[in-house]
Design a protein that fits this description.
By secondary structure, the protein is an all-alpha fold. The chain has a domain of 192 residues. Helix content is 75%, strand content 2%. The chain is built from eleven helices and two strands. The chain has a two-stranded antiparallel ribbon. β1 and β2 form a beta hairpin. α3 packs across α6, α4 runs antiparallel to α5 and α7 packs antiparallel against α8. The longest helix is centred in the C-terminal third of the chain and has 40 residues. It is globular, with a radius of gyration of 23 Å. It starts with 16 loop residues before the first helix and ends with a helix. The N terminus is likely disordered.
């Protein structure tokens, strides 16, 4: 009798390569989470939390007000990503409706992760407003592209013109960052050239039609996303009370953003704090750095989440009343 195609010479089942890779990926992800969690716990044990609390309580009122204003501006700019996508997709929803979806999605995305805010909530809200899954997918794709286009541009400029001064003893060569910056800017330039000059502008990926935006939309993407990253860094800069130069704060924030994405921890909780402390505590007391990042979380993450939750509850209640009347 012939052995099954999926068995080895001993008659044992052999997993297909795709299934084996899926298992390995889950195992590696679990190990990574465990290591990150252990590092965060060990790091937290060595922190003088009383000093952190004193640092946060010492903030002058004008710093909190300025940080809150910058946070509001950043959230408004991020909501405009969905307005850019409105021109890209051609749907006719009103500006306030689109901005509301963008704000709620971003606030939930920051705190609960992309699957909840960036994906699930966006699909639900836009479906309630009458958009198709394909239209929402295109909005989501362009919004994500907009965000990382701005990231690459700002990171490229900073790495080329004002590379971060790493802590003493770090083995990373200072010549690496300008190379990273040049590569990032080449990626941005390639995207812009494609949007202005490419002849083929449509693709089909898993049944979804993707279209290359116009050059004008690409420039708007670059402008709004770059502004957003600059605003976010300005919040931390204000909360650090300008004791560290803005370019360094911006660089560390960009590194922390990528670290949070890689870690796949909602809100990058603990990861962002660890990055700031690791890269700036040789220039400021650790308690002051950590206090600034925690205050940033309160202003930029938690306060908008509270407002977005109220707005979402009101939206759902209004929709329920409309359904009962129909």
């Amino acid at each position: 009798m012939r052995r099954a195609a999926t068995g080895d010479s001993a008659g044992l089942p052999v997993q297909p390569p795709a299934a084996a890779w899926a298992v390995a990926k889950r195992v590696l992800t679990g190990v990574f989470f465990a290591v990150v969690l252990w590092l965060l716990i060990e790091h937290a044990r060595g922190i003088d939390w009383d000093a952190v609390w004193r640092s946060m309580r010492a903030y002058p009122l004008h710093s909190i007000v300025a940080a809150a204003a910058l946070a509001a501006a950043s959230h408004a700019v991020y909501a405009s990503y969905d307005l850019v996508s409105r021109h890209y997709t051609g749907h006719r929803l009103r500006t306030l409706q689109v901005a509301g979806v963008g704000f709620m999605s971003y606030a939930f995305n920051l705190n609960l992760g992309a699957l909840v805010g960036g994906f699930a909530l966006r699909y639900r809200l836009y479906a309630r407003l009458g958009l198709t899954v394909d239209q929402t997918s295109r909005i989501l794709a362009l919004s994500m592209l907009t965000n990382w286009l701005g990231y690459l541009f700002v990171a490229g400029i900073v790495c080329l013109l004002r590379p971060l001064q790493l802590p003493p003893g770090w083995a990373v060569s200072g010549s690496v960052l300008p190379v990273v910056g040049a590569v990032a800017l080449m990626g941005v330039a390639g995207y812009l050239v494609a949007c202005f000059k490419a002849r083929r502008r449509h693709w089909s990926v898993r049944g979804h039609r993707l279209s290359l935006p116009s050059g004008r939309i690409a420039l708007i993407q670059l402008a709004v996303a770059s502004l957003n990253w600059l605003l976010i860094a300005a919040i931390v800069y204000v909360l650090l009370q300008a004791r560290i130069d803005y370019a360094s704060v911006l660089s560390v924030l960009l590194i922390g953003a990528v670290a949070g994405v890689i870690a796949h921890i909602p809100a990058g909780l603990g990861v962002l704090e660890a990055v700031f402390v690791a890269l700036l505590s040789h220039r400021l007391p650790q308690s002051d750095v950590l206090g600034a990042v925690l205050a940033y979380r309160a202003v930029y993450y938690l306060a908008p989440l509270a407002l977005a939750t109220l707005l979402y509850v009101a939206t759902e209640a209004r929709q329920s009343r409309a359904l009962r009347r129909s």
